[in-house]
Amino acid sequence: MNAPKGRSDCAGLSDPRLGNLINPRKKVTLTRNSTQISAATALVQLLTEHPELSEHLTWSISRTSPVLVGYIHDGGMRVLADCADFLGGSIRAGVEHGSSAERLRQHVLTARWRDVPVEIIVSVPVRSLAVAA
After folding, report:
1. Which end of the chain is least crowded, N or C, by CB within 10 Å?
2. Under DSSP, is residue 22 helix (H, G, I), strand (E, B) or coil?
3. pLDDT digits (tens, 9 = 90+) for 76-129
């Protein structure tokens, strides 16, 4: 099928109502998404070198900053300490949350991996921290 003169087969994608958001002739640059691309690349490298992390953490990449965030769902403080061993950085106690019957304290490892900021977060019962001390 031939498109009318002056129009491409993808003419509907450059609809003026879309503000040229999907214009096939418009050059795509990575500067706008470079922070997410950097974080995504760092995550791929991190999980390639430390595949065991995918068993214990769920990962997220921020839309607004290049921070790679890992949420520990299995292994608690032991996994956080293991992450600190190879990532470096520092662990700080964060906020407490939860009901009066079950208070949780968040702990955050802040580090860098391949020049990308990384935060790894775990919430553990305050009661278990007292027993461990």
Report:
1. N
2. coil
3. 999 999 999 989 999 999 878 777 778 889 999 999 988 899 999 999 888 755
